[in-house]
Design goal:
Structural class: alpha/beta
Low-confidence stretches: none
Bound molecules: nicotinamide-adenine-dinucleotide
Strand content: 5-15%
Radius of gyration: 24 Å
Length: about 450
């Protein structure tokens, strides 16, 4: 199939690369000229496992441009448009759908008479957006007196950053929300190799052992839109729940890591998303929980579980300061090294990362702050422009003279650090493990003061 994707961010680019891998021709449009320049040179603008290699190998099946008109010069044949632009949070918590609507207007202006198109909405959008996009497109078709068939499908995306391509090639489920059977058939054709797992897996992303075929959920647009929000809110709630329990574990002398294992092995609960720590961040959970609350408010519907989910999460970030104060006593003048600024490992995304808030709080309190991250430093420098933070590409250089190290992102490589060397370099051997990732007994044996969360 010939597919045009609007938005080449984490979702749009991953979708484009995966679809070209399974045999489709993909045209990609993004307003960000720097991003498109990089993509034209086959350089991935985001850090994702397998992305760079597959992008390079399948570049002959992809084209990149900053406008639809420009990319259509590569190939005028388009069967399907996929909207994967951002839906950031507005000041009142609502999701801002203006980019989705602008994308819909732009693509409607390029449709041709006598053809049949499917428009897929992959962005996370509030309930009713698919219907709104449909009316925007049909109004433009009317203005242009065009006679073509357009079907709209909600196809929410569930990929996890850091595993984006893996999740796209090996998803748990594919959700389609549409009123139209024709659109369902087209979507099944699009995803056939994934639904049947008939493609040869890329060497860098083998099919997970025991992987069973993805479920296909066909429903109406409102339910599809709600599935995405409800899924993210549930995952955020699971983390906040264990963080609430973690606080009580500290009070009563229990270890939340043991507790999480003990409850997670109950198959009704499951072990995933039960890691206590400094809380969730990223480009999805914060804005999606806010959008869902705002949707509830529109209907005068109170959502206390969701409110508490967010409240517990923001409490986790202040917890870091309280823990540092409990050991250092005075933050002002202390030298603090942050291990990891990405919102989670294996991604360079720092949107709403707990580390960014922690850095800002510490700087405001007069600490001397240094930060390390294996891949996210360039993005962190941009977002922390004007803040007095020093960035390091070497952990040992950063640790020199530190009074405390705060592990904010559980990058695998932090597990393999030479902690006796670090101890020798630090002014005070103190580690605050914000992700319960390190081995407390080993660190204590080396003479570190170790603090985790809920243990
Ligand atoms: P992103 O910010 O990384 O990328 C969005 C891109 O869209 C940007 O590069 C921007 O320049 C581009 N854009 C905006 N308007 C455009 C237009 N009219 N034409 C072409 N390009 C345009 O966003 P993302 O993280 O990829 O998320 C996209 C959507 O998918 C959001 O709704 C998000 O909530 C949802 N989502 C994200 C994830 C994730 O993990 N990042 C997972 C599931 C769903």
């Amino acid at each position: 199939m010939n597919i045009l994707i609007l938005g080449c961010g984490y979702v749009g680019l991953t979708t484009g690369v995966a679809l070209s891998y399974i045999g489709h021709n993909v045209l990609c449009v993004d307003k960000d000229a720097a991003r498109i320049d990089q993509l034209k040179k086959c350089q991935s603008p985001i850090y994702e496992k397998g992305m760079q290699g597959i992008l390079r190998k399948f570049s002959h099946k992809m084209a990149f441009a900053t406008s639809i008109e420009e990319v259509l010069k590569e190939s005028a044949e388009v069967d399907m448009f996929i909207i994967a632009v951002g839906t950031p949070q507005k000041k009142n918590g609502e999701a801002d759908t203006s980019y989705v609507e602008a994308a819909a207007r732009e693509l409607a202006a390029c449709l041709q008479s006598g053809k049949k198109y499917t428009i897929v909405i992959k962005s996370t959008v509030p309930i009713g957006t698919n219907r709104r996009v449909s009316s925007i497109v049909h109004r433009i078709l009317q203005e242009r007196s065009l006679d073509c068939k357009v079907y709209i499908v909600s196809n929410p995306e569930f990929l996890r950053e850091g595993m984006a391509l893996k999740d796209t090639l090996y998803p748990d489920r594919i959700v389609l929300g549409t009123e139209c059977q024709d659109a369902v058939s087209t979507m099944i054709k699009l995803y056939k190799p994934i639904l049947e797992q008939s493609f040869a897996p890329p060497a860098e992303l083998p099919r997970p052992e025991g992987f069973s075929l993805p479920h296909l959920i066909i429903t109406e647009p409102a339910s599809a839109e709600m599935i995405k929000y409800a899924a993210n809110a549930f995952l955020a709630m699971k983390i906040s729940y264990i963080n609430e329990i973690a606080g009580l574990c500290e009070k009563v002398g229990a270890d939340v890591v043991e507790v999480a294992r003990g409850i997670g092995l109950d198959h009704r609960i499951g072990t995933a998303f039960l890691g206590a720590g400094i809380g969730w961040g990223g480009s999805c959970f914060p804005k999606d929980t806010a959008a869902l609350l705002s949707l509830g408010a529109e209907y005068n519907y109170y959502m206390p579980i969701l409110e508490a989910t967010r409240e517990v999460n923001s409490r986790q970030r202040s917890l870091v300061i309280e823990k540092l104060q409990s050991v250092l006593k005075v933050i002002r003048g202390s030298s603090i090294g942050i291990l990891g600024v990405a919102f989670k490992p294996d991604t360079d995304d720092i949107r709403e990362a707990p580390a960014i808030d922690i850095v800002k709080n510490l700087v405001n309190m007069g600490a001397y702050v240094k930060a390390h991250d294996p891949v996210a430093i360039d993005r962190a420098k941009q977002i922390l422009q004007g803040w007095d933070v020093e960035f390091y590409r070497d952990v040992y250089e950063m640790a020199a003279g530190c009074d405390a190290l705060v592990l904010a992102t559980e990058w695998e490589e932090y597990g393999y650090l030479d902690f006796s060397r670090l101890k020798g370099l630090m002014r005070h051997a103190y580690i605050l493990d914000g992700r319960n990732f390190l081995k407390p007994e080993e660190l204590k044996k080396l003479g570190f003061i170790y603090q985790g969360v809920g243990r």
